Amino acid sequence: MTDIADTVVVQQLALPTPCNVLVVDDDDLIRAHLVMLLNLAGYVAHGANSGAQALLMLGIRPCQIVLTDWEMPDMDGPSLCRALRLRDTERYTYVVLLTVRSKASEILVGLDAGADDYVLKAAPSEELLARIGVGRRITRIEHSLRVSSAENRRLSITDALTGAHNRRFLMRYLPRELARSRRYRHPISILSCDIDEFKRINDCFGHEAGDQVLQAFVARSMGCTRESIDWIARTGGEEFVIVLPETTLVGASKVAENVRLAFAACAVPTSSGPVGATMSIGVSALETPEELAGISVAELLRAADRCLYDSKARGRDRATCLAPRHAALLASTGSIGSKHEIN
Amino acid sequence: MKSTNSWPRMSAPAGPDDPFEELRTAYFTRLRSDRVRLLGLRAELCGADTEPKFLYEAIRVVAHGMAGAAGIFEATEVMNAASALESAARISTRSCADSVDPAVRAGLDALTDLLQPMCG
After folding, report:
1. Contact B2/A at CB under 8 A
2. Distance of CA A31 to CAs A166, A303, B1, Å?
């Protein structure tokens, strides 16, 4: 899932990393001199003696900055720039061309190839380091933007209180889950969950305790589901949807029962003392190719909700499961005769 | 740009803590061999055995390398002389000149003369 990948990206990018510079020059002395100069200036510099070797090294260890000679056998600096820009890398690589060429037309060729800057070989060390410093500054800005962008993306699909996904995530990814189930003709189930008499909990124990009950529900439910496969979204105040890909109605009913029992098993420790709570669950699933092809996400959610209402109507603290084609009967007739009552 | 008075700087003994001393020494050593290489190319150019157009590219490559390294090691006079030779050799290479280009010969002379003091 994208959100999980984003979290990994955030964790990786948040690590303090040194600024790596790759010096590409076929001249051993120039390369050694520049590597030493950059290392003394606080960078972590390495050398490559050709464009091909540079690409190989960058594939193994990405660098923030590449300082490359223009004229080299086989692959020149502009060609290396073009090759770098074609790569799909996680981080931007700032490229500085090192050249004895000072004609504007030649410099334009280098910049057009994808270089960010150029520096003449005759330039003093101070200028070279200043230009590399610009590259470090820009790559750091790009790095922080990437971190905040990934974090914002994560927050936009996460419920801040419980850490579960939010409605936006549900409405974006449930259709994808359903599409995948249709494509591979695999079953998919959802649980529509609602904490019983949650208003009473808030009224009696306070909102802080209510929040802690919500958090406990998510934590305990996650213990009953498969990591990285099933997922939970908070869709309202005390309402949640648990999505169970690759799960039949029978399997989902077992999960629902496990979730219900895990939540009711022991009181939730809160700042206002232990709070006992139960929940009602509605379970629905798409199993057959006809169901997968003919029933929409909205219909699947509605079917689970009907089962949930039925659980509420029959006294709460229970789970009711029905295939969508049968769940419609609940709404039209109020009948519960065709349902499968788990408890 | 650093001072063009590069020879005294290059010839002066480096300080004991200069981390670049070893590289600079290696650069001097290579300058000597570059000069020998250029003298050889000049002799070939002025001889009758090899057509000049086959030598210009070799001269250009040597001059280009010298110009770049001189820039990095702040030997500005060498860089300027090598760049001039590289330009002349490039023009001659493109024009496929079949006689000795005076500009190339002059560039060779200027550069090898410049390097002579350090080569003894």
Report:
1. yes
2. 53, 68, 20
d(CA B78, CA B89): 16
A30, A34, A36, best to mutate vs chain B, most B CBs in 10 Å: A30
- Residue A337 pLDDT > 50, yes or no? no
User: Which residues in chain A have their CB less than 8 angstroms from residue B2's CB?
Assistant: 122, 124
Residue type, A45: A
> What is the pLDDT at residue B19?
87
Specify the DSSP element, H or E, that contains A162: none
Chain B hits for A34, CB-CB cut-off 8 Å, are 72
Q: Does the distance separating the beta carbons of A36 and B71 come in below 8 Å?
A: no
> What pLDDT does A34 receive?
96
Cα four-point dihedral sign A128, A134, A138, A140: positive
Say yes or no for a CB contact (<8 Å) between B26 and A71.
no
Closest of B58, B47, B41, B44 to residue B108, by C-alpha: B41
Residues of A in contact with B77 (CB under 8 A): none
Q: What is the pLDDT of residue B14?
A: 52
Report if pTM > 0.90. Answer: no
Handedness of CA A53, A57, A62, A63 (dihedral sign): negative
Interface of A with B (CB under 8 A): 27, 29-30, 32-34, 36-37, 40, 69, 71, 100, 120-124
For residues A19 and A133, is the Cβ–Cβ distance under 8 A? Answer: no
Q: Residue A305 and residue A308: Cα distance in Å, rounded? A: 5
Residue A63 and residue A87 in contact, taking contact as beta carbons nearer than 8 Å? no
Write the DSSP string, B41-82. Answer: HHHHHHSSSS-THHHHHHHHHHHHHHHHHHHHTT-HHHHHHH
Q: State the DSSP string of A249-266.
A: HHHHHHHHHHHHHHHHSS
DSSP strand pairing (A231-234 vs A279-286): unpaired
Q: Which residues of A are catalytic?
A: 238
Q: How confident is the model at residue B9 (pLDDT cuts 50, 70, 90)?
A: very low
For chain B, positions 50-79, list CB contacts with chain A under 8 A. Answer: 64-65, 67-69, 71-74, 76, 79
Q: Is the ipTM of this complex over 0.90?
A: no
Across chain A, what does the average pLDDT equal? 89
